Every structure is written in C-alpha cells, then in structure tokens.
Amino acid sequence: MLNFDVLVIGSGGAGMRAALEAVRQEGLSVGLMTKMFPTRSATGCAQGGINGALQNADPADSIEKHFFDTVKGSDYLGDQDAIEHFVSQMPDAIRELDYFGVPFSRDGEGRIAQRNFGGASSPRTCFSADVTGHVILHTLYEQCLKHGVKVLAEWYLLQVVADQGKLCGIVAYDLKGGRIVPIATKAIVIATGGAGRIYWLRTTNPFTSTGDGIAACFDAGIPLKDPEFVQFHPTGLAGTGILMSEASRGEGGYLLNNKGERFMARYAPEKMELATRDLVSQAIETEIKEGRGFGEGLSAYVQLDLRHLGREKILERLPQIRDLAITFEQVDPINEPIPIRPSCHYVMGGIDIIDYRTCATAVEGVFAAGEACCVSIHGANRLGGNSLADIVAFGKFAGKGAADCAKQRHGFSEGLVGQAARAWEEKFQAVTTRKTGASVVSIRDRLAEIMWNNVGVFRTGADMEEALKVVDGLIKEYQTVMVPDQNKIYNTLFVNYIELGSMLTVAKAVVLGALNRKESRGSHCRADFPNRDDAQFLKHTIVSKQGSTYNISYRPVVITKYQPAERKY
Amino acid sequence: MRKITYKIERFDGVNNFVQEYSFPYQPGKTILWGLITIKDSLDPTLAFTAACRSAVCGACAVRVNGQAVLACETPLDAILERFGDTLTIAPIQNFKVIRDLVVDWEPQAARLAEAKTWLQPRDEFDARKGCRQTAADFKKINTQAACILCGSCASECSKLSANDQDFLEPFTYSKVWKFVADTRDKSAAERIQAIQDKGLWKCMHCAECITKCPKGLAPGEDIARLRQLSIKMGYTGNPGARHALSFVKDIEDTGRLNEAKLQVRTIGLISSIAKFPMALRLLRRGKLNPFHFPGKVKGHEQIQAILKAVRESEK
Ligand SMILES: Cc1cc2nc3c(=O)[nH]c(=O)nc-3n(C[C@H](O)[C@H](O)[C@H](O)COP(=O)(O)OP(=O)(O)OC[C@H]3O[C@@H](n4cnc5c(N)ncnc54)[C@H](O)[C@@H]3O)c2cc1C
Ligand code: SF4
Ligand code: SF4
Ligand code: FES
Description:
Chain A is an alpha/beta fold.
C-alpha cells in the first residue's frame, strides 16, 4: 500500500505552505495531492492582496489595529485568541513570502507596497499589481519544486478513513492512471479550499471549489463550524458570476436599477456604493426582488455604470475589469453599463479546528487549513485580504502540526483503508453501469437554484424550510444518479458526480446552520430576524453527523480583549 | 436555426477518433461554453479541464483550428466569423495526451525543476526580514511573473515540435529569465551556465510563443535576452553563438533584421544541416508557411543587442 508520514491534500496557498513546512522536518515522507495540476487552484484567482501590519505605508498601523479590525469585521464571532495569534504572525509570514520569491509591488524605499482595503483602518494590504494570489501560488509551487515535494497531481480525494477517532488513511482516485488507490498515512492536512460552487453559476469561485475536503471530513466524523456564513460579493458579472473587483466601486462606479436610479441612496445615503460588501449585496437583491432589476429569475441583474469615469481613467485604472466585461458580457464599460449581481465569494465556515496553534481537528491525525476549515478568525464576515493571509499563516501551522503528529503516531489499521478502496471500486462499477436515474447536471442545477433563491443573500425561516426539503429530496435522488462513463482514465464525469455529493453534503449543513441561527450577523442576513442577538447567538454553530443525521450544537466564542459592540462603518 | 459544430479530436486511452457535435448557436459565448454545453447536454464522457473560467489558471488551453488558445476567454463569435460554424478542437501539442483534451503536465513539471526555476535569494536577505527591491526592478520581472503555465507557447513552438529532447518549453526560459533579471537573486551566472546545454541556442525565432501567449509574455524575447547575457559572459564558442554572429552583416547592411528574410534563413539553415524531413514536417503542420509573412518580430531589438554584445566580446 502507498504510504506517507504526512499527506497534504489540496495545492492552493494553504496546501503548498503546509507541504513546505512538513518537508522541512527531517526524515518524514511528505506528499502533496491535488485534483488538478497544482497551479490551477483558486488561490490564483485572488487579485487584491494580502494583509499584514508591515507599517510600510503607514507607520501608525499596528498588529493591534489589524487585530481589532478583524474582530470587528467578523461581527464579533471570530475567536479572539486565534485572531491575535494570526495577526501577530502576518508581518513575518509576508516577509518570508518575499524571501521565497513572491514579486511584490514596491514602495519608494524598495519595501513591499501596501494599499487600502475595505474594513481596514490603515493601508495594510500588500499586493503585486492585480495578480497577488497568482504570484503567491506560483512562488509556493516553485518552492515545492525546489524542496522536492512529492506531488501527486490529478489525484482526487474520495474518502478520509478514520477508526474510533483516529486517522487510518485515505482513498484517492488517480485520474491519469485510472485507478482507485488506498493510501495509509499518519497525518493529513486537508487544504481543499471552499465550496462556493453550491451556488454553481452564481459564484466567483472556480469550478473546483466544490467542498470536497469539507464533506470528506464531515463524513469521517469531524464536525463543521459556522457553515451558515457565506460571503457574497456585490459585483459579479450577471451571466457568469465572475468577479468585478471592488476597485470598480472604489474608483467611483455607480449602481443603477431599471429606472436609472442610483439606488444605494435608499440604503446607505452617506457611503452610497462604498458601503460594505454585505450591505451592497443586500441592497441589490432588494431592488431585484421588488421588480427594479433587469431580466428575470436567476438571470436578473442591476447595472454597474463606469461611463462617467471617462475613457482615460477606465483604461488606466480598470483595464482588467474592462477586458472581463467585454469578454464575458460583450459590454465595453466605456460606452455601456455592466450587468452585475452578487456572487458567492467565500465560505467563512468549514472543518472545525479545535487547536488554532496546530490546526488539529477532533480526529487524531487530521489537520486542516485554508478556506476548507474554520479556525475561526473570519467569524461572520471575512475582510478582503485576510484569506490569503489566513492560508499562508495557518498553512504553516498545519504543516508543522501534522509533521509533529506523524512523528508520534504508529500502529493503526491499514486494513480499513484497503476495505474502503474496494468499496469505492464497487461504487464505481455500480454508478457507471446504471441505466436510469437523474443526471449529475440536473441535480447540480436544481441545488444551485434553491440555494440562491432561498439561502442566498436574504434568508427567512419559511424559505429555508422549503430549501431543506428540496435539498433532502436531491440527496435522495443522488442515490440513484446516472454516471454513464465506464472509462476509468480521467473520468471527469465520475469526478463531477463525487463533487456533487460533496456539494449536497455541505449545502445541507449551510441550510441547517442558517435555519437555526435566528438573528442577522455579518453575511447571514435574515429578513425575519433583522438584528444581531448576542444574548442568544454569540456562539459558534457546530454541525456533526451520525449516520445520515445532522446534529446541531453550539460552542462559545472566545473573547479576550474586545467586548462585542455594534458594528458601524 | 443556426448550429455550431465542434469536431473534437478524442482519445480514450487506447484509440484516437474524431467526434462531431452540433448545438444551437448563442451569441456572446466562449469556446469553453461550447465544450461545457457538449458535456452537460450531449456527451458527458467528453474530458477536458477548466477551473477559473477567467484566464488565470491555465487549465483550459486547447487548439482551435490549429491555434492554441484559452478556451475560457476566447469569444466564439470572433472565431466563427473567421472560420465558419464548424471548428476543430484538439488538445495542445507537444504534451502527452491523457484523454480527449486533457494533457499530462508531469514531464513538464520535472523539466521546470531541472532548470532550477526558483529564487536563490542574495546573502544580505533573510527569511525574517524579507528582501528589498526598487519599484523599477520589480517592473523588470512583472511581465514574466504573469505566466499562468497554460502551455500555449509550448504547443505552438516550432523547435519543440521538431525535437523536444534538446529544448525546454518556452515558458521555462521565461521563468529562467525572470530569476536572472530578479535583483533579489544571486545565481544569475550559475543559471546562464546551466542553460547553455539546455537548448538556449536552439530556438528558431519563429515567434509562435510570442503570438500565442494569452498573458503578453514573449518567451522568444526572453531567450534572446538570455543569449545576449550569455555572450556577454563569454560563452561564444558554441554553434549557436557563431550562428548569431553570422547575422551581424544583415544588421550592418540594413540596420535591422528583416523578419521575412529571417524566416527564409531559418528554413535555409534547417535544410543546410540536412534536416529537410523536419522542415517538411513543420510545413505540413502549418508551422513554417513559406507564403506567410509574419509581422515584425517583437524581439528584434534584443537580437540587435546580442550582436552588439558579440562585437564587444570580440574586442
Ligand atoms: C475571484 C477571487 C478573488 C479573491 N481575491 C482575494 C483577495 O484579493 N484577497 C484575499 O485574501 N482573498 C481573496 N480571495 C479568497 C482566496 O483567494 C481564497 O479563499 C484562498 O485562496 C483559498 O485558498 P486555499 O489554499 O484554502 O484553497 P484553494 O486555493 O481553493 O485550493 C484548493 C486546492 O484543493 C484541491 N482540491 C479540492 N478538492 C480536492 C479533492 N477532492 N482531491 C484533491 N484535491 C482537491 C484543488 O485542486 C486546489 O488545489 C479571492 C477568491 C476569489 C475566488
Ligand atoms: S521563438 Fe523559439 S521558443 Fe518561441 S516558439 Fe519559436 S522556436 Fe519556440
Ligand atoms: S508563457 Fe504564456 S503561453 Fe506560455 S505557458 Fe506562460 S502564459 Fe501560457
Ligand atoms: S479556465 Fe482557467 S484559464 Fe481558462
């Protein structure tokens, strides 16, 4: 049987940073497994930047300010001990990226340049032009090549195998080799990214963000934390959900409804278009709901108007936005407004981390980092630039945590891993030879539709009861879905089928978490409970699974320094 | 009703075959939309890769009527207008095909590692303090840092198609140049030396890599830059460098390199070293079309600079 001391699953920023940390620990065999080639990860999509109080742009910035901004941004749901630990690591973590070779934009003194970002009280977002995530991802990949990390590219995680609270190994599908493979491993780091695709076309995320690692851990008995908190970015392209960066509003873009009104005047008369992401998203959805949008149903939209900025400014400051609008909406913003609508951007919740220093989960040997997990430092709402920061900081801790754990572990059942792999062989046979049943695409699209309409920007108890019924129905249909492709080599349909299973699993946790949180906080906005309710809900939602039953419990938020206060900007 | 037809070159791991799919035209869509339409509603067994659908991950490069493009950002309307409503879609070339449009990157990753494409920070820097670099010096590596490893350049590289045993992928040379040009790096000399026997002088100046790159890189130019530096460092004894010297006269006569002439010369060079079959193969694949006069080669300033360096090194 293939085996590793530490196997990192997922090669975004979190996974590669974890693998690098683990190979540094002498004498361990370390693997990095990923479902596509390593540089195809969501981390590469991030443009804006990465937060750390380097004090280059503003000597008055401090770790303390980054700490408070993050606590406030989280709507007081972030654990303050973890946040403090996180922000204090960031300046070093960013300078280390520089040393690894990340080509950062520079200030007049040759230091890393920093820009302003939403929710930050000082300019502390470090960047590389408008491709920050891209260069971080590629630089970490270069480092993995340098350190000879064993990369299993185009290997797909099917299952995390645990026995009595202890990791035994995993089952993977080697796409290129066309085999289902059991792997025994002392420790794993799950760094498989987010699950924005539960909203399918209404997301800024790549096709691969299907929540695989989140679902695999959940099925292996690890709880999920705060799944109901899903961040929507106000300006996704109407047809594809592709992100129109916040810079478009920062530079002075207007939002217009079908009457040509700058409707933000109704919702945030002072800040207008520059209000926070959650607020602007809520305003746009209200306009559409009340009939002041363009188009209908899932394809309804409002307009982002840049024309008044003038040709010069658009070409100079927003060239990428213009290119994307032309390519994907056939609209040149110099002459026409861009059709936009909120788009699912980030999942704050995920695999429940119980020790932020090591990124350990409740199952011995299983660690997690990045968007797949919930530490929690983002609480109810993540600040822009804090996710890239999260993945490099916690990627490192998880790599170290897993390596230390691997050194101490011995004697666990490999037999179970083999058994699980054989069950997958049978499952492959069964689903690919089935002649009836719904298609993967049909279930996927119905899931996205109900999630968007009933568990989207606005939520109500009644809508979510309905969504729960539909999702349960889809989960049932999924048992008999048809996967008509028997070829084991690079079977992307089989992959899509497993991804759909992951999305259904995660979506149900999102609905349940949201249904039971009877308050509005951060990204979770309930029309039937419009206020934040600290007395009852200043606590983390913990969803766990027994058989096919989902159970909900709660855990207190760690508050050290900052008492909850009303969030005003 | 107007229909679009994709003729897709498929491979199931054993057999190669071409399969045709027709679906209703819709305005304002991309090549990738067509592939997804086929997979979602006509044939779920079709295999291809795509992730970001916004031209940043590099997963979706394919050949459309013989040209490497990113499927996700290539507008269908423009392509249909040029070629009509039937398109041939094939995997990118010079990679091993795994299935249908999916190619294997593992060998390419190994070759990247061979070329040691990572920063070797100078001794005055350390991991805790990071590095320093001026804004102007950052600009020198900004373009190369935009490479998304999509493989379009490698797909259309004439040299790789002819023989990939003594040449690396164009993007690899761009990466090497990125580190040579990076003021934070201490190993420029070592890199230049290492690249001498890794095909540095084998590039054919066909400029395919430059025209095909969706991110505005110019690997051919970066190769020219590497050569220039290499001559400056005194590596003049190899056939490639000597060949460069033979262009000196052209430059002196006309003040610049004539691209059409260069093309003829390249073919001349190939046949003169008894590789006529290869030239034919290139012709057949549409690589070297004698009737096609490409635009001015973007890198001609670099070529001139090489020549200047040659002359200096001879003083
Ligand atoms: C358009 C966009 C813009 C953004 N801009 C910013 C920004 O400016 N600043 C910021 O801080 N954040 C930004 N974010 C958020 C940030 O980019 C992500 O949250 C972060 O990069 C996630 O990193 P990760 O390492 O956790 O996961 P990812 O980068 O998503 O990587 C997940 C990895 O897991 C692999 N994987 C998944 N499932 C499996 C499986 N079953 N088997 C094997 N491998 C698997 C994938 O192939 C991939 O390699 C942005 C996000 C998007 C989408
Ligand atoms: S210019 Fe050189 S590297 Fe570029 S495609 Fe032609 S032969 Fe290949
Ligand atoms: S150099 Fe350009 S074409 Fe080549 S891999 Fe990089 S981005 Fe693609
Ligand atoms: S899908 Fe990422 S580049 Fe096309």
